[in-house]
What does this fold into?
Amino acid sequence: MVSSASASWGTVIFSLVVAYVLAIVPLPEWLVHWRPAWVALVVIYWVIAQPHRFGVVAAWFTGLMLDVLVNNTLGHNALALAVIAYTTYVLHMRIRVFPLWQQCLSVLVLVGIYMLVKLMIMRAVYTGVSTPMYWVPALVSALMWPWVVLLLDLVNGRRR
It folds into this structure.
């Protein structure tokens, strides 16, 4: 999936900015639940691609910025992204060699963990009811993973 070639911080920041824009772009009400977890996908990619550069602390700061952008409780996304960054870091050598379909399953689980942490924080802070539609972004994110890998590999300068 990724090479040992090192991407510049500009490339990483550019991909995160694009993910932030995709995360906050307005969607019709019927399409809101089908939005992939763009920022989580980019964090997973960079932790797998460059674990020595992009890790838990970078994911935490990425999550803080996302909290500010989407007006969530400060630390809500930061904690969730830090948890999946750590989990991805622990498993990155395995995920790296998986075929793409197994990577999609791994991303389904990782984004599911991200959504579970967010749900636990929401339940602790707010009184909200989650529906089965809450989990749809995890599935959509797993289906979008091959495209994210393709685009970020192109940006990263890596060829398959």
Remarks:
- The chain has one domain: 30-156.
- The mean pLDDT is 91.
- Residues 30 and 65 are 26 Å apart (CA to CA).
